[in-house]
Amino acid sequence: MKKMGMCIKLKKSKVQGYKALHKKCPKEIRDILTKANIKNYSIFLKEPENILFSYFEYIGSDFTKDMQDMADNKINKQWWDLCAPCQEPFKEIKKSQWWFEMPSIFYND
User: Fold this and answer.
1) Does residue 94 register a pLDDT over 70?
2) Fewer CB atoms inside 10 A, N or C side of the chain?
3) Beta carbons within 8 Å of 77's beta carbon, 6+ residues apart
4) Any residues with CB less than 8 A from the CB of 27 and at least 6 apart, and which?
5) Domains and CATH numbers, the chain
6) 57-85, pLDDT tens digit by residue?
7) 3-state SS of the chain: helix, strand, coil percent to 5?
8) What is residue 97's predicted lDDT score, i.e. its pLDDT?
9) Residue 34's closest CA among 66, 72, 78, 64?
10) Cβ atoms within 10 A of the Cβ of 64, count?
């Protein structure tokens, strides 16, 4: 199992809309996550800084393929098209990144 922590900013003007989107997250999106071997997926919001932190556990054997399959899914693309305008990548990261991965430095089970 691979534990993933990721971060991105949320545009101040989009906070309420982003919360509303996720309050009514379609079952199809949840199914896509499950099919991509993602479990225990959570998104947290730190206000007033509007920083999103996501956590999930990857339980598959081919992370790259599962992430590509998810990215290629038509329904998921539509979902991302709704979410992306709400988000703002950190200026300090590579231009090719959107959410950036945060390596784990401590775990206690």
Assistant:
1) no
2) C
3) 71
4) none
5) 2-102 (3.30.70.100)
6) 999 999 999 999 999 999 999 999 999 99
7) 40, 30, 30
8) 67
9) 66
10) 7
**Which residue type does 34 have?**
T
Closest CA relative to residue 76, chosen from 42, 22, 31: 31
pLDDT at 95: 65
* Residue keyed to tokens 């996550």: 33
Please measure the distance between the N-terminal and C-terminal CA atoms of the chain and give it in whole angstroms.
Answer: 14
Name the phi and psi angles at 96, rounded to 5: -80, -10
Report DSSP state, residue 13: G
3-class secondary-structure state, position 85: helix
